[in-house]
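Z., the sequence and structure:
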Amino acid sequence: MALLNIKNLTVKFATATGSFTAVDGIDVHVDKGEVLAIVGESGSGKSVSMLAVMGLLPDTATITADEMTYDGRDLLKMSKAEKRKLIGREITMIFQEPIASLNPAFTAGFQIEEVLRINLGMSKREARARAIELFTAVGIPQPEEKLKAYPHQMSGGQSQRVMIAMAIASNPRLLIADEPTTALDVTIQKQILDLLMKLQEDYGMALILITHDMGVVAETADRVVVQYKGKKMEEADVLSLFEAPQNPYTRALLSALPEHATGDRLPTVSEFFQKEGA
């Protein structure tokens, strides 16, 4: 049985003139301990589909699905109290912009200790000791000192490590990472990805990695879902996807990789579609 199973998920947002469909009938599942990459360009509904799982969409969103279960439990029928016990403990999420996700008015230590005290019922002393352990686990140097730092006093890479520490604080079974390296330089991106993969293996978590980067997919994923304009285009294990992509959009994404450049610039997705006659 899949750890997370979603069938026919649709998300619509109310607008001044009607509604906009951001996710259109998507099926997604992830098994225990698996790394699933959800890939596609901006606006393809990758983040929205996972925010629907987390219950983090605004009131303007209407969510429907034939099935949305976590470990056999129906997420759509859960009460708010039941979902609060699940989200942030067994299912956690890392967001794109760590600086925007951290509260600038509080130290990094206060923010992670608050998570530990609220979600796990730890005392102040227990939370401080655990926070130091977590900062050490995610590779933050001088963890005792960094607990006293405010977000603006930390680099982008350190801020993202704080967010990862907060996400793994409760030993989640499912971690969703939404473009976790977008705002970071190339060297730091690799460090963060390597850290996520190590933690996934150490903790035995299922990991859903939301990305637009096919290079990241090749390095990390067991299985891939390709999305475009709110729809699922293709799903395959990572080796099959790269060796024999079945959908024209998947082929377009792969053709845009730098190693496939044949002229002065890479082809756009629309140019690729025109070339294929799709």
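The two ends are 36 Å apart (CA to CA). Residues 2-90+172-276 form a domain with the Rossmann fold fold (CATH 3.40.50.300).

Let me know what you think.
H.
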